[in-house]
Amino acid sequence: MAARGTSPAILTVESLTKQFGGLVAVDGLSFSVQPGEIRGLIGPNGAGKTTTFNVVSGFYTPSAGQVIYDGKSISGLKMSAVAARGLVRTFQHSTLFQEFDLLDNVLIGCHLKHTPSLMASILGTDGAERRATRDAAMETLEFFDLADRRHSLAGELPHGLQRALGMAVALASEPKVLLLDEPFTGMNPDETQHMMELMLKIRGRGTTLLLVEHDMQAVMGLCDYITVLNFGRLLVEGTPDEIRSNPQVIEAYLGTPHHAA
Question: In the chain, what are the domain boundaries?
Answer without folding.
Answer: 7-86+175-261, 98-173
